[in-house]
Amino acid sequence: MTMSPDRIIPTRHLFGPGPCNPYAEATAALGLPLIGHLDPEFIARMDRTNEGLRVLWGTKNARTLPLSATGSAGMEAAFVNTVQSGDVAVIAVNGLFGERMCEVASRAGAEVVRVDHEWGTPVDAERVAAAHPNPTVIAAVHAETSTGVLSDIAALGAIKGDALLITDAVTSIGGMPILADEWGIDVGYAGTQKCLGVAPGLAPFTISDRAFERRVPKPQSWYLDLGLLGGYANGAPGGQRAYHHTAPVGMVASLEAGINRILAEGLDAVTERHRSAGKALQDGLQEMGLELFAAEGYRLPQLTTVMVPEGVDSAAVRGYLLENFNIEIGAGAGEFTSTVWRIGLMGPNANPASVALLLGALKEAIAKA
Amino acid sequence: MTMSPDRIIPTRHLFGPGPCNPYAEATAALGLPLIGHLDPEFIARMDRTNEGLRVLWGTKNARTLPLSATGSAGMEAAFVNTVQSGDVAVIAVNGLFGERMCEVASRAGAEVVRVDHEWGTPVDAERVAAAHPNPTVIAAVHAETSTGVLSDIAALGAIKGDALLITDAVTSIGGMPILADEWGIDVGYAGTQKCLGVAPGLAPFTISDRAFERRVPKPQSWYLDLGLLGGYANGAPGGQRAYHHTAPVGMVASLEAGINRILAEGLDAVTERHRSAGKALQDGLQEMGLELFAAEGYRLPQLTTVMVPEGVDSAAVRGYLLENFNIEIGAGAGEFTSTVWRIGLMGPNANPASVALLLGALKEAIAKA
């Protein structure tokens, strides 16, 4: 067996749907000494990290923490803690991650009422609210990674009734405002590898007191049981931390550094940076004669979906970009694999240089690939 | 809110039950450029990592991979993929992690038949095999992190009959031989933060063809569904990788580097290094007049359990070590919280300098704390 430790590692421009290139601060934190998961210094770090996450989520929820797995596990945690056999989950489906919610909720035992939307369009809050008279949960994706579409979560929150509102914020957190408390989000989950600018591996999570009180008493997942995780992250009522599992201490340090980086720049400035980079990219693509996929008015700046031109080989262009420019962009999701590209400008990549590089390289790739 | 990025980060000697200090190579890998999870370079890295894991597991199992969460999620994956309502799980309990297996198996719907052992003693294979005539799975912990005890998994494998054998190798992998195929292990899970010398965050996992064929067709966990994860890690039958979730690409790079580091030294040499450091520590503790907790003949070299002397405040000693020497050791588990210390010399910490440091510092701490 050969396992050479000295192979060349390419320096990619990660302009796909994630991971993006991390903020330098988030990477640097991974090189600092590891601290044990029960060390007072780590507990203080977890507290600071959770406090930073509260700012990004726009919440005062005590139970706000990074779960020890990737964003998809955050989705699973949201459902296994809120629904069980006999409960009704109304799920807005306008892309791959809404589809996935149906699968995950169904495995948690819920009766799933799915409300389908054309891919590329936003969630219609009225239709979702009308789908069932008395659901246990209503769920929707804020920023659909598969289609590049933004949906109005506040509109859903306003008409959710007694249901708990679950929101996927994987691609929005850290790149655009989220106001969980104001919008009425009861359970939110996200990932670290998009606009937070941190490597994948954690799922920032928040749950309201209201949702926590109604939680499934003994979820089918021990690992994602929020009743046990409360003691792990925030201390039991007496203030004592309870051992649940070994926290991924290095990744938490990196997340803290990424959050610090974002807050140092300021949430408004970070939002504006993502907005203006996305706008410049979308304008540039249209000037090249390309057609955007997501419905106008609902386009995510941090993740642009664009139609592959007639007669162009989608995979060949992506290969050309990777080989010649070290640029990664994403294929489309689901049935749009070969007809849509997904271009992310997230975290540190949301800047004018990335836009110029991508537009120049893509033009050449389409011509020559 | 103050989130200072420039606070001092202590350089700890992580001599507790894990995480240990990582190998320098594993840390350095985290500073290198991130690669996308669908990048051909990352797929090649995942293949190399899985090949290295096969060496450490002592297996030819095609389905050998790092799950994208910590070791406890590995335990959950082992059970949710092998047992469901009505299945019988015979579980050997000789410490905290055997206890946890019962809880996790029960949440997966299994009828749990627990075979209790006195903490500090090894698993009695004959008793376990006699506990039920026809169990679906038999499960045991190879190296009990809570008690510092090694159990003979090969003895269980020899008499498992038709049952699948699940083994927790969290604290053994990378520090002592595991021969999964020879011993008859059908499903094994581990963690990265012990003898592998990598930060916590992944669960090295292996499952035999026999176990995979019998797997639960649609496990309650989507995130840990091995039927879906097969495509993610090893390619579908046609060789195509399927997107399941975003792999924690940075952590996988670090794991690959840690495995390379271990294989470069050689498994025999690494085993001997852990053995001799553990022996020197245990000899030294006994020379100080301390009494070891784990039964003689079954003591893990990489994780030593020692009785707190009469009249000594366990927590005060641990605090003294942390404050004065930057040394972390662990409290006991379960009912032994204040009567046992757990001292790990794992990964790069398994060396004579760590032994000398720990013994000198502990002597002072006991005298002065």
Automatic annotation (TrEMBL), chains A, B:
GO terms for molecular function: alanine-glyoxylate transaminase activity; L-serine-pyruvate transaminase activity. Its cofactor is pyridoxal 5'-phosphate. Residues 35-332 form the Aminotransferase class V domain. InterPro entries: Aminotrans_V_dom (IPR000192), PyrdxlP-dep_Trfase (IPR015424), PyrdxlP-dep_Trfase_major (IPR015421), PyrdxlP-dep_Trfase_small (IPR015422), SP_NH2Trfase/AEP_transaminase (IPR024169). Pfam families: Aminotran_5. Transmembrane segments: none annotated. Signal peptide: none annotated. It comes from the Bacteria. Substrate binds at R342. One of its GO terms (biological process) is glycine biosynthetic process, by transamination of glyoxylate. The modification N6-(pyridoxal phosphate)lysine is found at K194. Keywords: Aminotransferase, Pyridoxal phosphate, Transferase. Belongs to the class-V pyridoxal-phosphate-dependent aminotransferase family. This is Alanine-glyoxylate aminotransferase apoenzyme. It comes from Crystallibacter crystallopoietes.
